[in-house]
Specification:
2 domains, BirA Bifunctional Protein, domain 2, alpha+beta, 11 helices
């Protein structure tokens, strides 16, 4: 048995020395050290040998196995190094050619970044971010926001309507609590919301005052030009409590404007009209390009600021104190118009992004032209 072990050891040594590559070495390992190899079988059968042969055979067999494993490892390293050197010498690299540029990682769309920036400002002021349905009932989109049927303000927010035939005969309208609503006379249309303001009523149905929320989301109208698209993004804000005043509205929006456009901005409120606020105000922020002067120095000469058109002010949003008629629709939820009051505001996210980044045409945000998007 000892003689056979030596024969196997010598055969394996010769085969290892003659192996041309790593694949041949693997075959040799399987042949002499694998589970079915003769040397392996000898070591497994030591227990069947006479007692006086077990020690010498086991010692010699293990020595042969360890030696062959070492020879195989050394030979593998040597052959792999030789193969690598041969491959390197056979390949050539022209170091004068430009390298492959790294693939640029994507980033958030500028409108998404603007929306998150606005949300961060109001969350820091204690507001809660809420979302609502984009397919809305006429009641929440118009009637409960003081746009009764036939009101001329509805014409300014013409939108896209769901086919009445798809709703069934005389569909019932349910509130956010799941209970059927008893509504005043009016249309039962279903439409794509024209603003995120319907969440004013929905949120007040769900929670008693005080309430401080903002509602970002997509809205839909039939407008389409350089400053309007059929689909656009809006953020609605609502604050309701017992002692909230127009001064609180101005302070809130001033904090917002300075966070978004710079710490030196000033705010201006102008009288306006919105059906669901009274009084209503348009809000302007001092121009951040000309510092509110209306003029810029270009090449040593003064020119009219092309961003604010020389006025020194930029219109950013509409707002006002919530009309008591709106509270009348949620009176039973704790919003007695004689006890609570609040303010609401709404802004277009595209409008804020256009002003902040100097984008001249709102439609550029939706053209997916990477030459424009990569600038942000």
């Amino acid at each position: 048995m000892l003689e056979r072990i030596e024969e196997l050891r010598n055969e394996a040594r010769t085969a290892i020395d003659a192996a041309p590559d790593a694949a041949a070495l693997e075959d040799i390992r399987v042949r002499y050290l694998g589970r079915k190899a003769e040397l392996t079988a000898i070591l497994r059968g030591i227990g069947e040998l006479p007692p006086e042969q077990r020690g010498p055979v086991g010692k010699t067999g293990n020595q042969a196995r360890v030696e062959l494993e070492g020879l195989l490892g050394a030979a593998k390293e040597k052959l792999e190094a030789a193969e690598l050197n041969a491959r390197i010498s056979g390949e050539s690299i022209d170091v004068t050619l430009p390298g492959t540029p790294p693939v640029r990682l994507g980033h958030l769309h500028p409108l998404t970044r603007t929306r998150r920036e606005i949300e961060d400002v109001f969350v820091g002021l204690g507001y809660k971010v809420m979302e609502g349905p984009e397919v809305e009932h006429d009641y929440y989109n118009f009637t409960a926001l003081n746009h009764p049927p036939g009101h001329p303000a509805r014409m300014l927010q013409d939108t896209f309507y769901v086919d009445p035939a798809s709703l069934g005969a005389d569909p019932e309208l349910y509130g956010t609590d799941g209970a059927a609503l008893e509504l005043p006379p009016g249309p039962r249309d279903v439409l794509l919301r024209t603003h995120t303001s319907p969440m004013q009523v929905r949120s007040m149905e769900d929670a008693t005052p005080p309430i401080f929320i903002i509602v970002p989301g997509r809205t839909y109208r039939r407008d389409s030009d350089a400053t309007h698209t059929p689909m656009f993004n809006q953020i609605e804000g609502l604050a309701v409590g017992e002692d909230i005043t127009l001064a609180d509205l101005k302070g809130t929006l001033l904090t917002f404007a300075r966070a978004i456009f710079g710490p030196d901005r000033e705010l201006r409120l102008r009288p306006h009209y919105f059906p669901f606020t009274e009084p209503s105000v348009e809000v302007d922020v001092s121009c951040f390009r000309c510092s509110g002067t209306g003029v810029m120095t270009v090449g040593g000469s003064e020119e009219r600021c092309n961003l604010c058109k020389g006025t020194g002010w930029l219109e950013i949003l509409g707002s006002g104190m919530v009309d008591p008629n709106v509270f009348g629709f949620v009176r039973e939820h704790g919003y007695d118009p004689e006890r609570v009051q609040g303010f609401a505001f709404g802004m277009g996210i595209e409008r804020i992004a256009m002003l902040k980044h100097g984008v001249p045409d709102l439609r550029m945000f939706f053209d997916d032209d990477v030459r424009m998007l990569e600038q942000f």
